[in-house]
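Ops channel
N.P.: pipeline sanity check, posting one input/output pair.
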């Protein structure tokens, strides 16, 4: 029994040698002394290099200053609370609500969903498509008429969040897109 166990263990021990054709690859391992010596060499080279400081013409903190949030947004206020929405997000603003769109005067900012929920009586949202927001397609005329009749402030939204609506882009003269170009049909061709 001892001989079978010993022979199995010997066979298992010699298997890696048989697979590697009897050669065991040895590698040098980097020691702590080698690492510290290499570190000192690198540090010595770094001290020899001259550091050139080029003066800047303008202060990067001034040039790259973030824009003022109130320049990019409109503020809607009501009962001491305010919400920020992007400029051009208001589609319809009745005369009686113009005082609610103003500069904030020591008011508490709340997020858009909370503000909308608290002011549903006078604010309405209108979901726009990406192409409407980009000014590539107009807002529906019947919706604009309905907004005038309702008398509420209307905010353009996309996926329930306010979004800017750019003015409608007019095609440049001489260019007709596929939708506005007349088709070459017998009805549209000149009579001969």
């Amino acid at each position: 029994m001892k001989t079978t166990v010993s022979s199995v263990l010997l066979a298992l021990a010699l298997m890696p040698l048989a697979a590697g054709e009897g050669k065991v690859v040895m590698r040098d391992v980097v020691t702590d002394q080698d690492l510290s010596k290499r570190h000192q060499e690198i540090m010595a080279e770094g001290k020899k290099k001259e550091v050139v400081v080029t003066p800047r013409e303008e202060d990067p903190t001034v040039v790259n200053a973030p824009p003022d949030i109130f320049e990019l947004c409109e503020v809607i206020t009501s009962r001491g609370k305010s919400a920020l929405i992007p400029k051009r997000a208001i589609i319809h603003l009745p005369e009686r609500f113009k005082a609610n769109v103003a500069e904030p005067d020591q008011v508490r900012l709340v997020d858009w969903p909370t503000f909308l929920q608290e002011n549903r009586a006078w604010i309405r949202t209108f979901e726009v498509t990406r192409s409407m927001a980009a000014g590539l397609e107009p807002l529906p005329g019947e919706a604009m008429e309905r907004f005038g009749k309702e008398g509420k402030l209307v905010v353009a939204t996309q996926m329930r969040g306010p979004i800017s609506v750019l003015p409608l882009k007019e095609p440049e003269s001489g260019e007709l897109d596929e939708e506005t170009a007349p088709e070459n049909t017998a009805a549209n061709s000149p009579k001969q």
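N.P.: looks fine end to end. The first strand starts at residue 73 and ends at 78.
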